[in-house]
Amino acid sequence: MSLVKLENARKDYITGEVATTALKGIDLSIEAGRFISFVGPSGSGKTTLLNLIGCLDRPTSGKVFVADAEVSAMDRKTSARFRGENIGFIFQNFNLIPVLTVYENVEYPLIMVQNVPPEERRRRVTEMLDKVGMADQAHKYPAQLSGGQKQRVAVARALAPRPRLVLADEPTANLDHATAYKVIGLMHAMKKEFDTTFIFATHDQKIVGEAELIYTIEDGLITETRENAAAGGVK
Amino acid sequence: MDNLPLDLVIPEKGLAAIRGILDGNPDVLAYSERIRFGAMVSNFAQTTGIRLTAVAPEKESRVCPALPGRIKQGDADPAGFVKPGHVVLPLTIAAGLNLKIGDDVVLVATNKEGSVNGITFKLSGVSENIMGPQGKDGYIHLNDARSLLRIEDGEITEIAVKLRDFKRLGKVYPALKKSIAALPGGKAEAGSGGKPGGGFETHSWEELSPFSSIAKIVTLLILVVRLVLVFIVLVSILNVMMMSVYERIGEIGTIASIGTPPSKILALFLVEGLSLGLFSGLLGSLAGAGILLLLQAVKLKFTFGAMDLVLAPAVPLAEMLLSLAVVVIISTLASLQPALKASRMEPVEALRHV
Questions:
Q1: Could you report the per-residue pLDDT of B125-147, keeping only the tens digit for each?
Q2: In a domain, A143, yes or no
Q3: How buried is residue B267: exposed, middle or buried, by Cβ count under 10 Å (0-12/13-18/19+)?
Q4: Subunit contact B262:A76, Cβ cutoff 8 A
Q5: Which domain holds residue A44?
Q6: Does any domain span residue A3?
Q7: pTM for the complete prediction?
Q8: Chain B: closest CA distance from residue A85 (Å)
């Protein structure tokens, strides 16, 4: 059964009188529990595709379904609630809230989005920080962390609300290779642990090799779909 | 007011009715019947104008307890600071006419029929100059005024009333005014057949005081200053909150993308503006209260004319709380536009600012 489904999704950006087509009619079906990569050069449409799946943006035409809900037809309020309940995000620049501690950053979506009771919240935050190896840094602020540590906190924040789908846009772009592999390894481990579907966009070929299913995107179209039997080898 | 029309009087019958109202009112501490009129005072060589208030001294002292204290030379006994046949003159007139205590003066006045009368009085007291535009008020006994003005019945021109509790003025004054206006008499009785409310006027001290209009102007100026301050608070908070939103577009994009509803983003920024107003208002109120307490402890003294004044400012607690409430409300209102802007941001647009 498909967790994510796109039907002829097209996205045009209009700047002044110039229209730029970022996606030229994508048809895509992704099953739950997969570890998927969108790969392609800069400007190919990876981020736009992730934005449509994450209901951060709407297609110019076509339809987008996530967990059987047509997210492309949702209004702002409904799509915000849907994201909070079903989708986790990991960003290239980590996007942690600088005035909150590591603990508070992970706790934020549980308070402000899901209204989880305090006891359950404490249990989940502690569990997630343990899983990503950041329990001993819980009291620190993002500015006191390295890039790899920030991204581990971002992974914990994305998974704390128990989403069905995690979207990561260039999650390793600001990390050195060793750290990048560790973060991807962590994401892989979390995917197994929580049976969460991960989709990440990257143009790093070495990182791409860790995905179970690889979609190559070029010029707004999916040009290749490849299963990767050797995925999940990182430690 | 220097030459009050003496045909506007409270006749004996009306006076009795008013006495009945005042005696029956538990809020009234004392009242003093007066005849106020313009006259000429002469030392037999020089003459000048004067405004005279004829009083029964023991009653006047109960209504104006500070009055005997203002008599700096001569007899200042509260029960009899002006006896029949005597006059109290203000310092300016006494000095101008080279008068000493015990000297004879002639008071000349015109009565309501237009005839002129003069009587010799003995100077029994000299009062200090009172601050304000007048400073030419003298006092004689009520019985002497009736002789001077050839008033045969018990008519007077005004009654001064003192309340037991000044704070109850706002409630007692309208009630008294209503009761007295309902009485038949006064000018109306003489001229229009005694219709109720036609003759007697009742005024609060504020309406009669020459400082009342000055106080009103000062109140208006304070209101203008307050409006300016409200505007400054509005612009300052608006500026701070706009900067706060612009500096955090990336963060707004992040919290919106992870599912924070627009209503909660709006609430976050409104609470920030409210907190800013509340805490800065509290801080300002505490600082102001501290300065007030300091001034009250130091008791700065200064002289204004003939008066020694002590600066002991006070601000009612209700006034402080009102100012605090205004600051909090204005801060919240000023935050509304930036908060709406933040809540309406598209997450995908906001994330590009990271």
A1: 999 876 544 567 899 999 999 99
A2: yes
A3: middle
A4: yes
A5: 32-60+75-227
A6: no
A7: 0.68
A8: 8
